[in-house]
Specification:
Blueprint (H helix, E strand, L loop, with lengths): L1 H109 L1
Length: 111
């Protein structure tokens, strides 16, 4: 009888040990799974942040190009305005010289 009780106790201990080992195995698998999920989420956040920063960099580059283009056009317009002013001034000066020459020639003809 004593041996039967020892045998049952040993069987019960083996069953408890197997249940505990299964529970420990489950927790190990759960830990690995949660670790994998955390790593994936962290990598996703890093990739999302990197994509966001790249988009911001592209936007800043485009804005800089727009600013540079506008500044270039503004400089070209100022140069064009100065050139047209110079051409107008030369035209008016030439016209006044032509009118003066016509006046002098008219005076010569009248006298």
């Amino acid at each position: 009888m004593f041996l039967l009780n020892v045998y049952r106790f040993f069987q019960l201990c083996c069953q408890v040990f197997l249940a505990l080992s299964k529970l420990l195995n489950f927790f190990d698998e759960f830990d690995v799974l949660t670790h994998d999920v955390l790593v994936v989420l962290l990598v996703d956040q890093v990739l999302l942040l990197e994509a966001l920063l790249e988009s911001l960099m592209r936007l800043l580059q485009v804005l800089f190009l727009v600013y540079e283009f506008a500044a270039d056009v503004l400089i070209d317009l100022r140069l064009l305005r100065a050139l047209t002013f110079t051409v107008r001034f030369q035209l008016l000066h030439s016209l006044s010289q032509i009118l003066w020459l016509i006046d002098v020639l008219d005076d010569l003809i009248d006298s």
